[in-house]
């Protein structure tokens, strides 16, 4: 896909000078990004905005495929907030129409489309959660069904005529599936077209997305040119690795940190990442300046305990989504747990059937998914009753009230009756 044609066309146009303020804005925009295309064009957009006082229109589209956001989603939201703080108009676009198609990005099979009911249910929580990062008072929220539904069959055919199958097959996941003989449904070709049409409808100057969205973002750029608009620039953000430090953060992979999780859970999960991955979280999630992070890194390399830096990023994240007091309490709770203590916020569970097998109790208290998993945890020394390790898989627990613990973070205060 040719992304340089508009840059070449504009090469003869007078170039606006880049003021110090514009250069600072460009540096903020580029922090932690994977790519900014085309940087020279975006610099001119910033300069024009400064000269005219008209803010840039900056778009982020998210399909409400799940009801909850995690820290991986906030990587691009953080960038939106930074641009919002620079005075530009950010548009939070909920893809209620495109969700019914299903985004094929990075997939080797057709993605099942969501029902209207699922989409509406998920969308209800999206903006509320995104507002924990964005300034809701300065955010334009839109739904792409506004302009996609009115297109109708005739409009959809006309839109499809603006793009060729050959260009669509330039997309990596489509070409791989075609070569492997894996089915590609015709409706999947519509997804990047509809996402691109969103940029036309919104007249966006810059669109943000993950690295897996690059093709779709470029389609938007091409369609804008076809509709006689100035093409948007595109900014792709890296995909944040999850708690395992390998796979991208994903609820389905259970390596995620949800932004609405309890403060103590959120803090403990951040503390569980590796010392190496910690710097990735600083780069993509922290509001600290690049200079501050570099100074902190130098302190660690000079002998300071990495745990101190990890505590700092954990507290920063918890404070953002809860409060500073919650961050302080989460640290105290984490220290207490690390010393073998029992946290204050232990869920209460009432069970009957004493004396009861320990493995069965662990399952009934939702601390283990199955009795076989419970047996395995007991065998590995991962189960405690009132802070004492229990290694007897055949233990029968008598009636009473006690705290069951599995691993470092799962607790339940159980009241067992006959």
Automatic annotation (TrEMBL):
Subunit structure, as described in the record: Homodimer.
Name under which the protein is recorded: Tyrosine--tRNA ligase
Species in which this protein is naturally found: Pseudoduganella violacea
One Pfam assignment: tRNA-synt_1b
Domain RNA-binding S4, first and last residues per copy: 356-417
Extent of motif 'KMSKS' region: 248-252
Enzyme Commission number(s): 6.1.1.1
Swiss-Prot/TrEMBL keywords: Aminoacyl-tRNA synthetase, ATP-binding, Cytoplasm, Ligase, Nucleotide-binding, Protein biosynthesis, RNA-binding
Gene: tyrS
Family, similarity comment: Belongs to the class-I aminoacyl-tRNA synthetase family. TyrS type 2 subfamily.
Cross-referenced SUPFAM superfamilies: Alpha-L RNA-binding motif, Nucleotidylyl transferase
